[in-house]
Every structure is written in C-alpha cells, then in structure tokens.
Amino acid sequence: MIILSIETSADETGVSLVEAEGSFPTATYTLLGNGLRSQIELHNQYGGIFPMMAKREHAKALIPLLQYSLEEADLLAENSSHLSSEKIDEINKILERETDLAKDLLEFLSKYELPEINLITVTNGPGLEPALWVGVNFAKAVASVIGCPVVPVNHMEGHILASIFDVVEEDQLAQIEFPAIALLISGGHTELIHMPNWGEYIKIGQTRDDAVGEAFDKVARLLGMGYPGGPEIGKRASEARTQNLPPFKSNLPRPMIHSGDLDFSFSGLKTAVLYAVKDLGEVELTETQKNALSRDFEDAVTEVLLKKTKVALDTYGAKTLIIGGGVSASPHLRAIFTKELLSSNEDTEVFFPIKQLSTDNSVMIALAGHAHKEGASTAGAVKLIKADGNKSL
Ligand code: KG4
Ligand code: ZN
Fold first, then answer.
1. Whole-number pLDDT of residue 187
2. Does any domain span residue 252?
3. What tens digit of pLDDT does each residue of 322-371 get?
4. Atom of ligand 1 at shortest range from CA of 332
5. Which residues are near ligand 1 (CB < 6 Å)?
6. Residue 360: inside a domain, yes or no?
7. Which ligand 1 atom lies nearest to the CA of residue 214?
8. Is there a domain that residue 136 lies in?
C-alpha cells in the first residue's frame, strides 16, 4: 500500500510517500519520498506564528513538496491524459478557499500523472485552524483525482507512533508492552497519556497553562534568542554544564511538582525567569549568564517532567514509556530520563523518536493513518478515548 501523507498543523509543511507492507502493527514501512519545508525563518522575523501567514506558506509549499516527494520516490511521470472539465470543476470547488493552490495543483496535473496511491493521510487537528484546512482540502482534492480514501489523523497520535518507529532495526513499529505511558511534549501540548493498548488513549495529565515547548520558546525570546527556543536553550545549557557554571538563579520553581496529580504548569516558571532577568535592572545578561540561566531553566523543566512521568508509570503499572513531540529532541531530557528511569524503574523501556521524526513531519501521520486504516482488523478498533469528556487528545 502506498500512502501519501500531509502535515500542515503548525509551521512545518510535510508531504511524504510511505509504502506499507503488511498490517498494523507489524507492517514494515519504506519511506519513498519525504518533502519537508519549515516556515521557521519567516516566523522568526515576526516573533511568532500567525495562523493566516502559516496557511499561505503551506499553500505555497504543498505542490513543490509533492513534486519533490514523487521525484525522490521515482514516481513522477509526465502526463498522457487530461482531466475532464468536471474534474477540474470539482478540484476548484474543493479548493475554493485556496485559489492559488487550486491553480498550482491543476497546472501540476496538466504536466504530471499521479501514481497509484492507495491511501491519503492528513493531520486534521490539533493545530492552527486555517493551516489545518489547507492540508485537509489539499488531501481531498488529490484524493478526488486518484479516487482513494482520506484518513484524518490526530497530530499527537502521530507523535506517539513516530517515537516507537524503529528505523534502525526493521522500519516497523517496535514490539511494545502495554499498558504504556506516553509523555507528549511539544510547542502546543504537554500531556501524559495512558495507553492500555494500541490506539487507546486516555489523557491522565496535561498542562494548565503554557505547553513545555512554548515555555522554552518564551524564555528564549526573553533572553534574546530566536524561535524555536528549545534547541538554543539546550545548547547553552549544555555549555553551562560543561563549564560547570554556578547557578544564575538557583531557586527557580518546580511548578506543581508536589500537586498530587499528573497536571503541569509552566507559566510561573517562565515568569520566574523573567524576574530573574528584571532583577538585573538595565544591565544586559552576559553570554555566560544566559548559559547558566538556560541550564537552570532546563533543569527545572526536566525535573518536573520526570517526577510526574514516574508517578504515571507507577500508578498505571506501565513498563513502557513513549516520549514524543518536539521537546523530546532535547539531548539533556533524553539523557536524564534514560539515566533516572534505568536506576529507579530498571525494567521500564523508554522510546524516543529518531531525530528527524522528533519535530513535526508527515511520516508520523502516515504511520498513524495506516493504524486507523488497518487497525480495526488486527489490533482491535483504533479509538480515541476521552478521559475528561470534552477535551480531545
Ligand atoms: O512537535 P513540534 O515540532 O511542534 C508542535 O507540535 O508544537 O514541537 C515544537 C517545539 C518548540 O516549542 C521547540 O522549541 C521545541 O519543540 N523543541 C525543543 C528542541 N527542539 C525543538 N525543545 C527543547 N530542546 C530541543 N532540542
Ligand atoms: Zn507536533
């Protein structure tokens, strides 16, 4: 089965082609083509993501990325037939809010033929609404040409599957022992999820204010660094550790660490960093101070995440921990989680995504979409269980 996968939920546009052989969860996957374009530089200039700007950039990127993926997969063929006028009308109707994209797609289809694609998977939430719509409408338009089904995918489920995707061994999902706990840490989410089985997600904890990635980004901005903040804070923190710098702010809070539940809060920590900076008055922080403060902040975040995750593992008797989302790229977090869990819960297996699948991408959406298409017959119906009634994963 060849899957065309699309991701447009935030500031990365992803279009990939993945071949799946076999049934979920034991299928093997081959990445045939992977187009990914980041809008980071643009958003960096404006100091944040503006949804309408993100939408426009996705619309501009989708056709070049589709072409790139098809070329990489060696599946790009010149066209020998023409679209009927009814089909052209249908495409224009589906993309009536994205007229430039409709034009680009029709031009593409006048030159090239789409190969046989069996399934289209597309992120349909959570994310920036206008950005999501471009991806979903594009998926529908391409599906109308090919005549294949479209599977909508939850972005966070994509992050979970990305983390258990074993590229080194067999290009398939790792054998995991249930129940599992997933810690999802991204720019928009901080969640603990209890997974009794494949495809079953029960949210057991979440942030009450800022997401952890958002806290990294806000603290980075406060310290005069660019977006996204996570990687640079991580680099500076690591320098501070290498140089064994004394704390810049030794008593940063560990919010909600003893709250007795599995929720998080990061906005107070960000404010504490703000006051630490303000306390200096007009004086600018030196590079050394920025490094030390980055380390102090990263330590505080990691400590809280680790503590709550350990409680979740114990509470649910889980032996599997899946860590996903952009913040899981943090080398420090990886090192601490691996070391601490090995010493306290030795038989816990911890899964991290490979570097390329840590931050947003469309490959993870193909995996999750394939699970939904195939899962019903093999792993029990893939369903989304809402722990608190009205909030989705
Ligand atoms: O999953 P993701 O790519 O997008 C969302 O779904 O939000 O996560 C992006 C977040 C950003 O907040 C970014 O600062 C953070 O992931 N991030 C990191 C690192 N790389 C990206 N945070 C800490 N350390 C990193 N190395
Ligand atoms: Zn994400």
1. 94
2. yes
3. 999 999 999 999 999 999 988 887 789 999 999 999 999 999 999 999 99
4. 24
5. 10, 186-188, 213, 216-217, 228-231, 234, 325-327, 329-330, 359-360
6. no
7. 12
8. yes
387 falls within a domain: no
Q: Find the CATH number of the domain harbouring 192.
A: 3.30.420.40
The gap from C-alpha 299 to its chain's centroid, in whole angstroms, comes to: 23
Say which DSSP state 167 is in: T
What does the pLDDT look like over 266-295, one tens digit per residue?
Answer: 999 999 999 999 988 878 899 999 999 999
Residue closest to 291 by CA, chosen among 329, 256, 330, 242: 242
Is 64:72 a contact under the CB 8 Å cutoff?
Answer: no
Strand partners, 193: 182, 203
List, for residues 198-227, the tens digit of each pLDDT value: 999 999 999 999 999 999 999 999 999 988
pLDDT in tens, 226-263: 889 999 999 999 999 999 999 998 899 999 999 999 99
CA–centroid distance, 326 to ligand 1, in Å, is 3
In total, how many domains does the chain have? 2
CA pseudo-torsion sign 219, 238, 235, 292: positive
Q: Is the dihedral of CA 344, 258, 238, 160 positive or negative?
A: positive
Owning domain of residue 259? 174-353
| pTM of structure | 0.93
Place of tokens 């998080």: 264
Ion ligand 2: residues, CB < 5 A: 186, 360
Is residue 180 located within the same domain as residue 113? no
